[in-house]
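Ticket opened by: R.M.
Priority: normal
Category: complex prediction / small molecule

The reporter submitted a protein together with glutathione and asked that the result be attached to this ticket for the collaborator who will pick it up next week. Submitted input follows.
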Amino acid sequence: MKLQLVIGNKNYSSWSMRPWVLLRQAQIPFEEVQLKFEEAGGGLSVGGIDRYSKAKKVPVLLVDDEPVWDSLAIAETAAELFPDKKLWPEDARARRMARSACAEMHSGFQALRGRMPMNIRSRYPGKGLTPESQRDIDRVVALWTECRERFGGAGSLLFGKFSVADAFFAPVVMRFHAYDVKVPRVAQEYCDAVQALAAVKEWVAAARRETDFVAADEPYAQKGK
Ligand SMILES: N[C@@H](CCC(=O)N[C@@H](CS)C(=O)NCC(=O)O)C(=O)O
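Result attached by the on-call engineer:
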């Protein structure tokens, strides 16, 4: 089986980071196809995406050239294709909670996304903090704390061992890092554990090497930069 993962800029593309970290951390081999964001007429598009997806967004997983688009569909497909990797928690109650957490992440947290766009190579301490983004942050912290307390066990991740849920929250961890969001100890320890994952380190190192500047994702950059 041939797997190709089409992603965007590693510095900015939070949706792309999820399946990339999931596959890499689980040691599922894939070929990376990186496309770059392009800005035209005030909008953002992905250069060359037409070849891969009618939805025209990254990420896309090509399974023997057949596209699977949207990060949640990709995660479910990977879990189905590689049952031995146990990408979802084995315990049924933990699995239900992991699925709910991923779905909540997938469809919610608009203020956090909008005010604190992922930007791995930059630091904007304190930027983006509004009552709405603070509410999202508080909810993320409560969710992480509940997962850790109920299902973390001896491991350091949300459900102990690495799972889809950690891949889904990795971009949030990077946002908290970039904007220096202060969180309680249990959440900070979780952030540290995510940043220590080999796949996350690899993604971050590659993101830092990127030099493309995408204005739509840079609300806090100084003019002329
Ligand atoms: N829900 C989708 C969202 C994908 C998405 O919005 N991707 C952005 C980049 S991170 C994109 O491709 N934007 C280009 C566009 O909207 O034309 C997923 O989970 O994959």
